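Researcher: Please translate sequence to structure tokens.
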Amino acid sequence: MAFIGSTQPRSRFSIGTSRKSSTGGDVGKEVKATDAELVVRTSGTNLVKSEYRPPQGEAFKQDIFPNVPQLITFDATDTLIQLKSEVGMTYRLILHEATRFRSRLPTPAVFTSAFNQAFTETNEKYPCFGCGLGMTSREWWAECTKRTYALVEHIDYERGLRDRMDGPLGDAVAEVLYNQVFASTEAWELKPGVLDALSRFKMWREEGGPQLAVLSNFDERLHSILDQVGVADAFDFVLTSREIGSEKPNRSAFEVAMSRAGVADPSLCMHVGDGFDSDVVGASNAGWHSVWIPPINGDDVPTNIDPDLMFSMCGDLFAVLDIFGLDPHFRLIPTTRFVDERGNFMDEVRVYTEEEFDNQDGMLVLPAAPKSWEGPGRL
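Model: Translation complete:
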């Protein structure tokens, strides 16, 4: 009979007498299992397994979290907010708008690939959006934007367009992207369920729970964006890498958050984010508890990570609440109409008013939607 990983008393894992093998020799002397060892008993053989480690991503099941942390910080991009469409789609649309929708441009994927390369190059050259280098975030993004379009070789196929993008038109496009599109809800929206989850985090804080903050590799526009999507009041403070001069996963970024919150013990802090290296590894190295909310279709734990890295993996912010027993029994399911787990239309009833009907035939009239090809006329 074999005993593997049993939850029975420790005595079941202790072998107090030597055994004889089938050949009559001693197999071994007394072997005792420590708290972190498993002993496997097979016929004629004693095996001691190496030190047991809990499955990575399930630290919350090991009771390592404090009952009430004093500080919980959240990443912003793809944890609280997300782009309404892929970044390449927006870069393509604004350039198309700037040419009065006459240019022939490649697919959004081409612009996305160019942006990712340009962002990496610009960030390596000017870290933290140019902080400490005498460079404004507007200038940083102008550099990144122009580099993005420079990497899209298809622009060269449109006669004269490259020359215009190297001049005033390129400056105008960069300014619109920085000051209008990516600084507002034209580009950003809350992730599904975030508003409801944050309202419960806020209630917890008001009842004596932890301080809540945002710690994100972003620039100063994040404050306005969070205000526009309606969640700024949920946080005690917001820290961006541009403003503090340090970006995750640097330990100093987490130390600034602790200092701002007045928390001296890192074990009383927890960080929630979608980036494995920047959020999970960074927070863990700073002595914090880290919670990973992996991106959609990207929930595989990276290979070749430190086997001693302790973190928790949750599907969304509600699962983070559930770590502390605060997940609501009922919550709204994001759909195109009001639905919750008890059925359709339980929390909202549609009421039609006289103003919504045409006076002539009583038919419901919807407001005219702007044609996408018309554009807002800013270029």
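Researcher: Any highlights?
Model: The radius of gyration is 28 Å.
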